[in-house]
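User: Design a sequence. Structure:
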């Protein structure tokens, strides 16, 4: 991870329920910090400071929370927004142990965009994957993973997850469904074989996009004809 430690100073909160609206009017955001071996702690922080921390840390960088001069390492777990104002109205942090590995999704950055022979020849490098889940100790969790694309030359070439050079003590998370695959005829592909980026001819990419858009329109027409509607996603309730 980066050299700059992200720190958030909070204070104990004594206001709960509907009364937290008064805090928000004063530029203060209710927060809950919870985790193994501790009682959930209700705290609060100034909006401006908290917004900076949430934007900088995302859900993959540990935050050093200072509560009454005691420090806890925690990850942003949930951020609630006021849909009308698009402002943060509560945040939940999950406390972690600095000695136990955690799993988090980190961004993938392409190195050398615009510098490859493929791009100089008018081809397009399409990023297929923006983030990936990794496992590391909280204080060794990278801010992002990088993969070099400067060697790409021709349409059809690609870079895979397995091409990413991982920092020391960081590993890619391989998920399985909990079932033995011994009886499966087809072995499931490894996450290391997934495409991060691929090289396209502009005309071929446009044709692929048009085909995808057409399939989406056809599906919408079928749903409409059948009178189906997408299920509404319920709004997250404020836990304060």
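Assistant: Done.
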């Amino acid at each position: 991870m980066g050299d700059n430690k992200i720190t958030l100073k909070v204070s104990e909160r004594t206001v709960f329920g509907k009364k937290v609206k008064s805090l928000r009017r004063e530029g203060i955001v209710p927060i809950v910090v919870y985790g193994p071996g501790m009682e959930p702690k209700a705290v609060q922080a100034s909006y401006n400071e908290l917004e900076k921390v949430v934007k900088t840390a995302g859900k993959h960088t540990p935050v050093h929370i200072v509560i009454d001069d005691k420090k806890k390492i925690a990850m942003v777990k949930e951020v609630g927004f006021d849909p009308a104002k698009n402002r943060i109205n509560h945040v939940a942090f999950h406390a972690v142990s600095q000695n136990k590995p955690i799993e988090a999704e980190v961004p993938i950055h392409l190195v050398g965009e615009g510098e490859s022979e493929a791009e100089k020849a008018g081809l397009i490098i399409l990023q297929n994957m923006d983030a990936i889940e990794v496992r590391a100790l909280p204080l060794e969790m990278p801010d992002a993973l990088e993969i070099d694309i400067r060697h790409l030359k021709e349409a059809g070439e690609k870079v895979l997850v397995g091409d990413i050079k991982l920092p020391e003590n960081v590993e890619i998370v391989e998920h399985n469904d909990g079932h033995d695959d011994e009886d499966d005829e087809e072995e499931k592909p490894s996450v290391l074989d997934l495409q991060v980026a691929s090289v396209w001819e502009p005309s071929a990419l446009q044709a692929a996009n048009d085909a995808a858009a057409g399939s989406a329109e056809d599906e919408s027409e079928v749903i409409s004809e059948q009178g189906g509607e997408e299920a509404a996603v319920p709004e997250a309730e404020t836990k304060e």
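The CA atoms of residues 208 and 214 lie 10 Å apart. The helical segments are 20-25, 47-57, 117-120, 202-225.
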